[in-house]
Specification:
Helices cover 43% and strands 14% of the residues. It contains ten helices and eight strands. Bound molecules: manganese (II) ion. This is D-tagatose 3-epimerase.
Length: 272
């Protein structure tokens, strides 16, 4: 069954980014729980920012899970990415992600690779960049398997990566990997820019999609843009997607309204 989740950012450098809650894990858990969310998705500066014991206590108290942990702080704070032409920088990027996989794994939550995928250009051809990315995903995917969690790879829109921008291309790319432990993130905001038909794209990802960023066309809460959610939700159900629909949305006009609009849409499309 599809579960609901909402994002919390603990990364000051990401202020203004598409995360709903900004005032710490305890605040996010309390609000998420009050509104009936199943889980929180955590965007943290590093693997050791969050006190594990405190987080376990909060999850129990508020009856929540961790849906996923983001790795973008490796890029935002340290400029690290998996297709850096410099091998030692690539190794640092992988170390950063392995530590996030460890952190998430403690809570049965996968790590997400979005901006950490980098981009091709300069002396690095697209093919060479994709080879580096494949090598990294094979290694990190198998590492995640040992923690019993998948690794989530996110195609982004053309303004954020030039590697893989559609679900269909993401599926073809995953088929070339030796690991079977990498799943795709279907982010509806990125898809709204890149896909001809969002529902059809979800269908093309059948069996390969492990996580959904559930947001509207303008990256605001569901219902605050012009996305037609009915066919998208129907495709998610039809393809037996059973991961999280997580609100990676701007807190516009504020966090509370964003959370309320999200859970309202979630109930409408997945629980009625
Ligand atoms: Mn996303």
């Amino acid at each position: 069954m599809i579960q609901s989740a909402i994002t919390v950012s603990l990364v000051e450098e990401a202020r203004g980014g598409p995360f709903v809650f900004w005032d710490g894990i305890a605040d996010a858990c309390e609000h998420a729980s009050n509104l009936g969310f199943d889980a929180i998705e955590i965007f943290a500066p590093s693997h050791d920012t969050v006190d594990r014991a405190e987080l376990k206590g909060l999850l129990e108290k508020f009856n929540l899970n961790v849906a996923a942990v983001g790795t973008g702080a490796g890029m935002v704070k340290h400029g690290l990415n998996l297709t850096d032409p410099d091998q030692s920088r690539r190794e640092s990027a992988k170390d950063f992600i392995r530590q996030m996989i460890d952190f998430g794994g403690e809570f049965n939550a996968p790590a997400i690779i979005g901006s950490m995928q980098g981009r091709w250009g300069g002396d690095l051809s697209r093919n060479d960049a994709l080879s580096l990315l494949a090598e990294a995903l094979n290694e990190l995917g198998e590492y995640a398997a040992k923690k019993n969690v998948p690794l989530i790879y996110e195609p982004l829109n053309r303004y954020e990566t030039n590697l893989i921008t559609t679900i269909a291309d993401g599926v073809e790319f995953l088929k070339t990997l030796s690991t079977k432990n990498v799943k795709l993130l279907a982010d509806l905001f990125h898809m709204n820019i890149e896909e001809a038909d969002l529902a059809e794209a979800i269908r093309s990802g059948r069996g390969y999609i492990g996580h959904v960023h559930f947001v509207d066309s303008n990256r605001q809460a569901t219902g605050r843009g012009h996305m037609d959610f009915a066919p998208i939700a129907a495709a998610m159900i039809e393809t037996e997607f059973d991961g999280y629909a997580s609100a990676e949305a701007f807190p516009i006009p504020d966090s509370r309204t964003t959370a309320e609009k999200t859970i309202e849409a979630f109930q409408t499309y997945f629980r009625s």
